[in-house]
Amino acid sequence: MSYPQLLLSNQLCFLVYRLDLAITARYRPLLAEIGLTYGQYLAMLALWEHRELEVGALCDLLGLDTGTVSPLVKRMEAAGLVERARRKDDERVVVVGLTEAGQMLEEKARDVPAAIARCLIADEKDYGRIQGMLRTMIARAEGKAGSVPGVARRKQRPRSGSVAKTGVGSDHEVHLQDEGIRGRGTNRPRRGRGGRPGSRPGHPGRTVQGKQP
């Protein structure tokens, strides 16, 4: 081979891809027992922690846009795990809360993290090292060095059910192939002075290529 940098064995991305497939395979039978896909499991982790969340706050926690999260929440609502309601003081805001069945499911899911951890880490010290390394790598890949992945990026007025700064836990690999969607993070269009998506401030007619996560 003329270019050793093109060797498959030299690609970090390929190792991450293989790890993603392996983790997904480990999760699938565990989550099948409690009737969740991986994407639904992540959303339930956030809701078990906060009990209710605005859709926007849930999107921030998962690092996904509303086009990905809304269908996921609708399927969970159809399964009787969550319920949606509009805020009385602002009907534009939709809040997702747990039903009684959704709360009870937490007990059934409590052993899932330990089962996955046994496949990936040796001890608590190893867990902390791997978690820190992964968060640093994600921040670099997303062009947000110095930030912590999993932290909400949108500032909101303090409200019940909104999130300022938090994460959904150690298992934040967003691979939503079970939902038929590959979640890659929120990529909202930038707006210029004229309010037109993709325009650079001061240059309403010029479009800017957004960074891909």
Query: Rough shape?
Result: globular
- Quickly name the level 1 CATH class of the largest domain: Mainly Alpha
Radius of gyration: 19 Å
Percent of sequence in beta strands: 5-15%
Order of helices and strands: HHEHHEEHHHEE
Major beta sheet, specifics? 3 strands, antiparallel
Low-confidence stretches: 151-213
Give the helix/strand layout.
Layout (H helix, E strand, L loop, with lengths): L11 H21 L5 H13 L1 E3 H8 L3 H13 L3 E5 L7 E5 L1 H10 L2 H9 L3 H18 L57 E2 L2 E5 L6
Antiparallel strand pairs: 1-3, 2-3, 4-5
Helix pairs in contact: 1-6
Descriptive report:
With 213 residues, the chain is mainly α. It folds into 2 domains: 10-174, Winged helix-like DNA-binding domain superfamily/Winged helix DNA-binding domain (Arc Repressor Mutant, subunit A), CATH 1.10.10; 183-213, no CATH class. Helix content is 43%, strand content 9%. The protein is built from 7 helices and 5 strands; from the N terminus they run ααβααββαααββ. It has helices at residues 12-32, 38-50, 55-62, 66-78, 100-109, 112-120, 124-141; strands at 52-54, 82-86, 94-98, 199-200, 203-207. The strands form 2 sheets. Strands 1-3-2 form a 3-stranded antiparallel sheet. A two-stranded antiparallel ribbon has the order 4-5. Strand 2 and strand 3 (94-98) form a beta hairpin. Helix 1 (12-32) packs antiparallel against helix 6. The protein is globular, with a radius of gyration of 19 Å. Residues 151-213 have low confidence and may be disordered.
Outline:
The chain is mostly helical and 213 residues long.
